[in-house]
């Protein structure tokens, strides 16, 4: 049920991250991306990313997230739909999790309900993004 991967500290290859939101940036509205996203700023709105999302230690998201891989160093208030979730020791998530794999490091905080899936919960993200331009 709770898987631990040892291939990298956050589950991402840094060369695949093509979108970065800096610490001093604030977005009010939804984000849709086909690429990997690194967020160090604040987002109020939903995020759909076919690639993955890394939320930096000072990052904050108030909204639902749908992505293949989510690594949390910062804080999230919202529901998460992901194949793989990693909550790091500095991470905090308040909301419901719908995931295939979950890793919670010592010190990481989670409040909500967990709904584990045997199959991908994000298959529809890629098809949804193909229809958007």
SSE diagram, text form:
Blueprint: E1 17-21, E2 26-28, E3 31-33, E4 36-39, E5 42-44, E6 47-49, E7 52-55, E8 60-62, E9 65-72, E10 75-77, E11 80-87, E12 92-94, E13 97-104, E14 109-111, E15 114-116, H1 123-130
Parallel strand pairs: 1-4, 2-5, 3-6, 4-7, 5-8, 6-9, 7-9, 8-10, 9-11, 10-12, 11-13, 12-14, 13-15
Descriptors for this entry?
1 helix; globular; mainly beta; nine-stranded parallel beta sheet; six-stranded parallel beta sheet; BacA/B; single chain; 133 residues; Polymer-forming cytoskeletal protein
Question: Any overview of this molecule?
Answer:
6% of the residues lie in helices and 48% in strands. It is mainly beta and 133 residues long. The protein has a domain of 92 residues. The longest helix has 8 residues. It starts with 16 loop residues before the first strand and ends with a helix.
The fraction of residues assigned to DSSP E strands is over 45%
Quick check: average pLDDT?
Answer: 86
Class from secondary-structure proportions: mainly beta
**Shape assignment:** globular
Measured between the Cα atoms of the first and last residue, the distance is 36 Å
H/E series: EEEEEEEEEEEEEEEH
Q: How many DSSP-defined strands?
A: 15
The percent of residues in helical segments reads under 10%
| Stretches with pLDDT under 50, minimum 5 residues | 1-7
The major pleated sheet works out as:
9 strands, parallel
Provide a count of the helices: 1
User: Radius of gyration over alpha carbons?
Assistant: 13 Å
């Amino acid at each position: 049920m709770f898987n631990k991967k040892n291939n990298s500290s956050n589950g991402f290859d840094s060369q695949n991250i093509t979108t970065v939101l800096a610490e001093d940036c604030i977005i009010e509205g939804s984000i849709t991306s086909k690429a990997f996203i690194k967020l160090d700023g604040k987002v109020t709105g939903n995020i759909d990313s076919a690639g993955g999302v890394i939320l930096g230690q000072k990052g904050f998201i108030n909204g639902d997230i749908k992505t293949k891989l989510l690594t949390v160093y910062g804080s999230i208030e919202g529901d998460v739909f992901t194949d793989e979730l990693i909550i790091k020791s500095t991470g905090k998530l308040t909301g419901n999790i719908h995931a295939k794999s979950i890793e919670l490091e010592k010190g990481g905080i989670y409040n909500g309900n967990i709904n584990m899936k045997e199959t991908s919960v994000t298959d529809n993200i890629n098809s949804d993004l193909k229809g958007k331009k």
